[in-house]
Amino acid sequence: MMARPVWTGIVSFGLVSLPIALYTATDSHTIRFHQLQRCTADRIRNKRINERTGDEVDLGEIVKGFDTGSEYVIVEPGELDDIAPGRSKSLEVSGFVDLDTVDPIFFDKTYYLGPRGEQYGKVYALLQRALAESNKAGIATFVMRGREYLVALKAEEDLLTLHTLHWADEIRDPRTEVPDLPGKAEPTAAEVKMAHQLIDALTTDWDPEAFRDTFQEKVKALIEAKASGEAVEKAEPAAQPTGVVDLMEALRASVERARSPKDTGEKASASKNTERGKKPAAKKRTSGAGSLRSLTKAELYEKATKAGVKGRSSMTHDQLADALAKAR
Q1: Is 160 helix (H, G, I), strand (E, B) or coil?
Q2: In the chain, what percentage of residues exceed pLDDT 90?
């Protein structure tokens, strides 16, 4: 039985769009307990209230119970610590691995690590520096809150971080989870080459500060508009799937749109002049947002990337032009 998607939509790059469905990538095999009142099978709810009697239960009277289907197996809080003596207090690195060999799907939560006292600062700094320079992570296991974790210890700038990892048997097989995988469908060599050109044209530096939750901003704007009785501006319609027949044309158009004027118009003009035996005309210097508005948004975005304009990913065409004019 195929898993149901948790979200469906379309992913787009350039003028190419692809309908997608999101599926849960991992399963947790953590044993889950219900809280019960000791010597009963009565569940403990929020505020520690006995659901059968309605009486509040003291924290010391609460034990863990695992539902087997026919009865509860009672586990005292201290019993979990007894079966792992010392492991709930220690984190022992069993080895170091190259960070590049750890598939991103294994990473779960991230924690910061800090030294417990100034006297341990040198040891902390030594491990941080060694991991950073070697691009390795320490792999370890430890017990926290009644659960054992597989973790990776790594360096992040000037501190150490700990990343919990999924166990191997928690990773779902995409071939059984995701329907309609391409299988034997193979793109042509020309399509692959054009896709590489599109990726190169849209390549930029990773700048997390350039992104923000614009949907939440629109939600706030929606609330304010409705509160004041104003009209609500609707979003643009979702992108349509790219058909197999027009895939190459969509790729070609995307590359052309993503290229800068220097790679398109100016080169074409220079080529024509050369064919006629003329020297390329000297370029006129233009300034201000007016001349920039004649460019496409993709061309403006590329210039904004080179100029280091902050927040460019969420700007409109005119906002990019104005920002570039100020940057000049």
Answers
A1: strand
A2: 8
